[in-house]
Amino acid sequence: MKKEELMDLITQSEAARLREVSPEAIAGLIRRGRLSVVELGGRKFLRRSEVVNFAALPGGRPAKKAGGKKVATTVSTKKTVSKKKSSKK
Q1: Backbone φ and ψ of 44, nearest 5°
Q2: Where are the domains of the chain?
Q3: Between 6 and 15, whose confidence is greater?
Q4: 3-state SS string over the chain?
Q5: Residues ≥6 apart with Cβ < 8 Å to 40
Q6: Domain 3-52 in this protein, CATH class
Q7: Span 24-58, pLDDT tens digits
Q8: pLDDT at 80 over 80
Q9: Most buried residue among 24, 48, 53, 62 by CB atoms closer than 10 A?
Protein backbone atom coordinates (compact mmCIF):
# COMPACT_ATOMS: atom_id res chain seq x y z
CA MET A 1 0.00 0.00 0.00
CA LYS A 2 1.32 3.43 -0.96
CA LYS A 3 1.97 6.15 1.59
CA GLU A 4 -0.81 8.32 0.12
CA GLU A 5 -3.27 5.46 0.59
CA LEU A 6 -2.15 4.94 4.19
CA MET A 7 -2.61 8.65 4.92
CA ASP A 8 -6.24 8.36 3.73
CA LEU A 9 -7.12 5.65 6.29
CA ILE A 10 -9.11 6.58 9.40
CA THR A 11 -10.63 4.63 12.29
CA GLN A 12 -14.35 4.03 12.73
CA SER A 13 -14.38 6.56 15.59
CA GLU A 14 -12.77 9.20 13.39
CA ALA A 15 -15.30 8.45 10.65
CA ALA A 16 -18.14 8.88 13.15
CA ARG A 17 -16.80 12.27 14.28
CA LEU A 18 -16.29 13.33 10.68
CA ARG A 19 -19.90 12.43 9.73
CA GLU A 20 -21.31 13.60 13.08
CA VAL A 21 -22.93 10.22 13.78
CA SER A 22 -22.36 7.51 16.37
CA PRO A 23 -19.67 4.82 15.96
CA GLU A 24 -22.56 2.32 15.92
CA ALA A 25 -24.00 4.04 12.85
CA ILE A 26 -20.66 3.65 11.06
CA ALA A 27 -20.49 -0.02 12.10
CA GLY A 28 -23.99 -0.52 10.71
CA LEU A 29 -23.01 1.01 7.37
CA ILE A 30 -20.02 -1.35 7.23
CA ARG A 31 -22.21 -4.40 8.04
CA ARG A 32 -24.67 -3.44 5.29
CA GLY A 33 -21.84 -2.98 2.80
CA ARG A 34 -22.40 0.76 2.36
CA LEU A 35 -18.82 1.53 3.50
CA SER A 36 -15.83 -0.66 2.81
CA VAL A 37 -13.02 -1.40 5.26
CA VAL A 38 -9.32 -2.04 4.91
CA GLU A 39 -7.83 -4.47 7.42
CA LEU A 40 -4.33 -3.60 8.46
CA GLY A 41 -2.53 -5.24 11.35
CA GLY A 42 -5.74 -6.85 12.57
CA ARG A 43 -7.56 -3.49 12.77
CA LYS A 44 -10.28 -2.14 10.49
CA PHE A 45 -9.89 1.24 8.81
CA LEU A 46 -12.00 3.24 6.40
CA ARG A 47 -10.91 5.49 3.57
CA ARG A 48 -11.43 9.13 4.55
CA SER A 49 -12.35 10.01 0.96
CA GLU A 50 -15.09 7.35 0.94
CA VAL A 51 -16.51 8.58 4.26
CA VAL A 52 -16.49 12.23 3.15
CA ASN A 53 -18.13 11.42 -0.19
CA PHE A 54 -20.68 9.01 1.32
CA ALA A 55 -24.24 9.87 0.32
CA ALA A 56 -26.95 8.72 2.69
CA LEU A 57 -30.08 7.19 1.24
CA PRO A 58 -33.20 9.33 1.46
CA GLY A 59 -35.60 8.58 4.26
CA GLY A 60 -34.92 7.41 7.74
CA ARG A 61 -34.92 9.57 10.81
CA PRO A 62 -35.47 13.31 10.32
CA ALA A 63 -32.57 15.64 11.06
CA LYS A 64 -32.47 17.47 14.38
CA LYS A 65 -33.37 21.13 14.40
CA ALA A 66 -30.36 23.34 15.13
CA GLY A 67 -30.27 24.45 18.74
CA GLY A 68 -33.84 23.44 19.49
CA LYS A 69 -35.02 20.97 22.04
CA LYS A 70 -38.02 18.80 21.49
CA VAL A 71 -40.85 19.63 23.81
CA ALA A 72 -42.89 16.69 24.93
CA THR A 73 -46.60 17.09 24.67
CA THR A 74 -48.93 15.06 26.78
CA VAL A 75 -52.50 14.19 26.07
CA SER A 76 -54.79 13.65 28.98
CA THR A 77 -56.57 10.32 28.91
CA LYS A 78 -58.65 10.95 32.01
CA LYS A 79 -62.33 10.40 31.55
CA THR A 80 -64.77 12.67 33.25
CA VAL A 81 -67.42 10.66 35.01
CA SER A 82 -70.63 12.41 35.85
CA LYS A 83 -72.99 10.98 38.39
CA LYS A 84 -76.70 11.17 37.87
CA LYS A 85 -78.63 12.61 40.72
CA SER A 86 -81.23 10.23 41.89
CA SER A 87 -84.61 11.74 42.40
CA LYS A 88 -86.34 10.24 45.40
CA LYS A 89 -89.98 11.03 45.85
Answers
A1: -100, 135
A2: 3-52
A3: 15
A4: CCHHHHHCEECHHHHHHHHCCCHHHHHHHHHCCCCCEEEECCEEEEEHHHHHCCCCCCCCCCCCCCCCCCCCCCCCCCCCCCCCCCCCC
A5: 1, 9
A6: mainly alpha
A7: 999 999 999 999 999 999 999 999 999 999 987 77
A8: no
A9: 48
